[in-house]
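thread: overnight batch results

M.L. [08:02]
morning all. the overnight job finished for the chain we discussed friday. pasting input first so we're all looking at the same thing
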Amino acid sequence: MKKSFLIPSLTILGLLFIQGTTKNVSVTETELHALAPDMPANVKAVVEQKCYGCHNAESKNEKGKAKLDWDAFEATKKSKQMATMAKINETLGKGDMPPAKFLENKPEGKLSESDLATLMEWSAGKKKDK
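M.L. [08:03]
and the structure it wrote out:
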């Protein structure tokens, strides 16, 4: 009779012990944001002046905000940010941004060589603060 209680009792104690040990807690969203790199001030300045008008959550340009939403960019995981940066780099490298049609109406939206270089360096993953 004692043996029949011993095995279940040990099993229950073992399960309780396992539950009581610390588990690896998954990284919270806040911690992920802390791991993601902050956008340098010089890059933020160019984005705010030249890109943000079309690429934000409140933009009337549905295509622009669907392709890239700067409001959501910094809140995403580092891996997604890196993928987005690669797409930005590719698009800028091709000369597709800002679009020619946009520049017809707003020539002041054209990226200067300095602005383009800043965005290209950043989106390529190079660290350079000015």
